[in-house]
Structure formats: C-alpha cells, structure tokens
C-alpha cells in the first residue's frame, strides 16, 4: 500500500515539473473600416475612412490584399481632393508597401448591383500578428440621404481578397460595411424692414433679397424672405463671406460669416432690421432721397413688390418705403426720423439707433 502511494506521488511530481506543451491557436484575419468622418456629413464635405487589417498568428503572414469597395454614386463620388481617392497608409505593411487602385463602373465582381467600386491592391512585408491601416478612402458628399441608415460603403467578399506570404488565399472575417448620413447645410435668419408691414396695406416682410458676397462678388443667391421675413440659404459654399440683405428704398444690412467644412449643419444669423430712406439706391440717406419722395408725394397705386404671394417678381416703387401703396408723410417720416445721414450697408442688428451725419 505504501509502495503504491510512493509511485503515485513520484508520478505526480514528475508531471507537474514537466514544461507545459502549448496548444496552437488557429490564425485569424479580419478586415474592417474605421467610422467615417464626419458623420453626419454635409453637402460638399470630404467623407473619409480607413481600411484596417488585423492579423493574429497568421504564419507565414499576411502579404497582400485585393479589395473591392462599393459606394452609391447618387450620394457620394470619389474625391478630387489633393489626397486623392485612395491615400496609402503605412500602418500595416510599413513604409515599403505597394498600393494601386482603380475606379470601376460598374464593379466587375458585383455587376448585378450596378454600383461602382474602388478596386484597391496593396502588398508588403508579411505580417504574422499585427493590426493597422492599409489606406484611407476619400469621397465627396453630393446629395442628402434618406432618413435612416444613410448611404453604405461595403467591402465585397472575394476568393483572393487576402493572401499570405506563399500566395495562398486567407479567408478573412466577414466583409466590412459602414454607413454615413448626408444632410443639408443651411443658414437661416430674419430680415425685418422699418415701418413694414402697415396694418391694412398690401405690403409684407416678404421679398427682401439675401445673398452671400465674396471677394470676387456675389457667390450665392439671392434668396427671398417669406411674409414673416424669414430666409434660408441651402448648401452655401464654405469660406469667409459677407451676408447681405436688401430691399428697394432701404439701406442694405450686412455681416461677415464663416461657413466651414465639418462645421455645424445649421447656422442661425439672427435678426436684422433694414433702415428705410435710401430711395435712390446710393447707399446713403440724404437730401436727394427727400427730393425723390417730394417729387412723388401722394402718388397712389404704386408698385409694391412684397404683396406678391409667389416669386417676388413684381417691380417696386422705392419712394413708397413701407409698401403701403402710396407715397406720403409716412415714408418721409421714416427717412428723416432716425435715419438721416445713415450710410449702408449697416451692421446686422434688429436695433435702430440714430446715425451720426
């Protein structure tokens, strides 16, 4: 009995003292796309994301990828930015990687869908266990996507999308798919007009013109205000620009705004009130404007542009400053009351204070 216990004890000690034999784990490779930036994107934005390979215990190592990335041309197009459509990255294969790409319309490996794709080939030193980006894709947003998931980018599964250092195909994880939403960029605000509307008259706050002006002149617009004076600029260009509002018989009002790529999708510039009295459109209110009003004093049935329910296409009589359909003492009072000597365009503000002649 004691002999048996001794043998068992010795066997147990020997077993515990022997080195453990490692259990080999099967290698794996996955292909993913990083989250798109920005998301949501605005019309005109550069949408970009990277293709990432993750290899674990892949003897003799991942040495090349042959990728087909589909996209919907109704919402995005390959970018023409200085970085190009495909920006090679050294994070997986290192600086000695080889990268080549083409745009296929439609995609040759997925012709039934009719979608175009970016065909990307990248290769380099074999990676056994490593994770990193091979390339960054760049697209430009061109249209608003429906509510919901947005528009998708998909890596298609093909027989040789990943190969090892012996040229043998490696079956990766499930193909990658990401989505991005594209929305409009809008600039909103309100343009009031001093003395308008007059109770019982045809004039409203409609038909003030709002535009963006750059160093080379008008670059966007005009759009017209509605009967409440509200306006919306949809998808204006990026950059530092002057926002200007005007209406016949009034000094223009302006402010500088910056619309930046990747900035907010909605910008509200607030409210401004146009000063009445610039009857002769000289960007100043002076004795010449008084003379024009006097020459047309008590003219009735004059043109009122802001009475039109649609289009703002009617002509307008600027001497009838408040659009009540008659040139009278009300118009002269608006001119001389607090606006004498004012020069336009005035600052964007809803507060009117006397100007210094």
Note the main attributes of this structure.
five-stranded antiparallel β-sheet; Immunoglobulin-like; mainly beta; single chain; six-stranded antiparallel β-sheet; 3 helices; 357 residues; disordered N terminus; 2 domains
Characterise this structure.
The structure is a single chain. The chain is mainly β and 357 residues long. The chain has helices spanning 2-17, 287-295, 329-337; strands at residues 28-33, 41-42, 46-56, 62-70, 76-78, 86-88, 98-104, 117-127, 130-141, 151-155, 162-164, 177-180, 182-183, 186-193, 209-214, 217-224, 230-234, 239-246, 249-250, 253-259, 266-274, 276-278, 346-347. The strands form six sheets. Strands 4, 7, 8, 10, 11 and 12 form a six-stranded antiparallel sheet that branches. It starts with a helix and ends in a 10-residue tail after the last strand.
């Amino acid at each position: 009995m004691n002999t048996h216990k001794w043998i068992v004890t010795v066997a147990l000690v020997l077993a515990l003292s022997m080195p453990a034999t490692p259990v080999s784990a099967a290698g794996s490779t996955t292909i993913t796309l990083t989250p798109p930036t920005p998301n949501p994107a605005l019309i005109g934005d550069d949408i970009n994301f990277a293709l990432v390979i993750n290899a674990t215990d892949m003897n003799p190592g991942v040495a090349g990828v042959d990728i087909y990335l589909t996209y919907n041309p109704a919402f995005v197009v390959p970018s023409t930015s200085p970085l190009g459509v495909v920006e090679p990255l050294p994070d997986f294969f290192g600086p000695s990687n080889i990268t080549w790409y083409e745009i296929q319309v439609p995609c040759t490996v997925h012709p039934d869908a009719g979608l175009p794709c970016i065909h990307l080939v990248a290769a380099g030193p074999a990676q056994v266990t490593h994770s990193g980006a091979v390339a960054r894709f760049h697209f430009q947003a061109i249209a608003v996507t429906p509510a919901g998931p947005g528009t998708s980018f998909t890596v298609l599964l093909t027989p040789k999308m990943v190969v090892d250092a012996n040229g043998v195909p490696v079956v990766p994880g499930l193909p990658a798919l990401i989505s991005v939403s594209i929305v409009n960029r809008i600039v909103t605000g309100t343009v009031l007009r001093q003395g308008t509307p007059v109770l019982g008259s045809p004039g409203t706050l409609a038909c003030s013109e709002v535009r963006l002006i750059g160093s080379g002149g008008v670059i966007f617009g005009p759009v017209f205000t509605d009967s409440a004076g509200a306006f919306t600029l949809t998808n204006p260009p990026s950059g530092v620009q002057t926002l200007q509002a005007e209406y016949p018989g009034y000094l223009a009002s302006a402010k500088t705004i910056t619309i930046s790529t990747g900035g907010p999708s909605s910008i509200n510039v607030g409210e401004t009130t146009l000063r009445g009295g610039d009857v002769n459109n000289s960007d100043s209110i002076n004795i010449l404007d008084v003379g024009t009003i006097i020459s047309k004093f008590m003219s009735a049935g004059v043109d009122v542009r802001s009475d039109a329910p649609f289009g703002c296409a009617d002509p307008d009589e600027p001497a009838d400053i408040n659009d009540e359909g008659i040139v009278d003492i009300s118009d002269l009072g608006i001119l001389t009351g607090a606006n004498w000597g004012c020069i336009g365009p005035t600052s964007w503000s809803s507060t009117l204070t006397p100007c210094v002649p």
